[in-house]
Design brief:
Strand content: 25-35%
Keywords: Signal
Number of strands: 17
Shape: globular
Order of helices and strands: HEHEEEEEHEEEEEEEHEEHEEH
Number of helices: 6
Length: 416
Amino acid sequence: MGMKLRFLAGAAVIACSAGAVMIAAPAVSQGASGPIARYTVDASTTSGLGAMGAGGGFGAAMGMLRGGGGQVAHELLLRLGSSRTATGAPKADHFVPQGTGLAPSVPLVTPERARSEPYTPGTMPQGQMPRGRLLLYWGCGEHAPKGQPVVIDFAKMAKGQVPPGLFAQGVNLPDDWEVLASNSTTYGEWPNARDSRSVPARSSLLGPHKVVSTYAPQIDFTLADDFMPALQPRSANLPSGAVRLDWNALPRATGYYAWLMGAKSGGGQDADMVWWSSSSTQQFGGALAGWLSPAAVAKLVSAGTVMPSTQISCTVPAEVKQAAGEVAMTQLYGYGPQADFAYPPRPANAKAAWKPDWIARVRFRSNSTIMLGMPGMDGMGQADGADSSSAPPPSGKPKCKKGLAGIAQRAAGLCE
């Protein structure tokens, strides 16, 4: 199972790279010129299996072993980019409110620039591409429409033979931008090798924030938005062979997006991989697996790529479930609000010249990872409407508990 999950994750990363949504550079309006510094705070609430690797740690793992669910973790990604060279050694700190559990500050470390090998567009490095095929499905519904799946041969893709028009054109998102070491003269990030503390599950971002560095103006802002609530997805098998995915409505969500990846057991690396997206168009990967501004989400909802905030269910087609096998890794994203700050502030007059010293952006999302079709790993530890109070199996053995503990006991023949 572990090797299979690692293969699924690796194939997902490769496929995401192939079908990335293009993100444009930051748009400059109102006669503005680029700021000296740009700062981004990406805040995530993670539930399900993802909570075990995003701050849930040992406690979340033990909760799963006890057959429970509801594990929640918080995650922060901080990135500072500046057009200035540092005065002396690069140094930056983000001073956070006491409620974060990270006070007084976290260091934004400038990573060493690693030497990268030349890359030829349209090719994949040898040894990084799995063998076999990738079957692409998309859209909510009990059955996949005609024309699906689209089939990718990994061997051909590794040689740069990508079918033309394979992925739909990404929606242009001119209001989205990224802070990277490659587009900054000096750059700092957290977490990093020096400080990789987990964000406490009860952490709060509310209150004053300050970023002080040797290569950018001081950045000050006060947050009135906090981490989003956790997503609690559940699945239910339908008579048609499809699987209905339901989740709780999040008060500040701007839209939802889901994807699934699976492969039938016993196929090894030559097995057919299956990738499904909730998008009504042939759109996969890229920025959809990250943070998106409300303006970007609104455009994606209009394009049918992201589900609207009023939609809290999506049916995975029967053909997808059949091809993906009994267990499929499923991700659900709920995109949230965004807080923007700048100094000096943007003028009310749209025609006035504006040259901010710095701009800052705080984005929120909630995401959950479940194993569709695996008992006890479906959101809150309850899958397919199973009733834990049902009578023991005819064999006389006790009924297996939910979660990983039950799976281990079943494998050992201690329960059914």
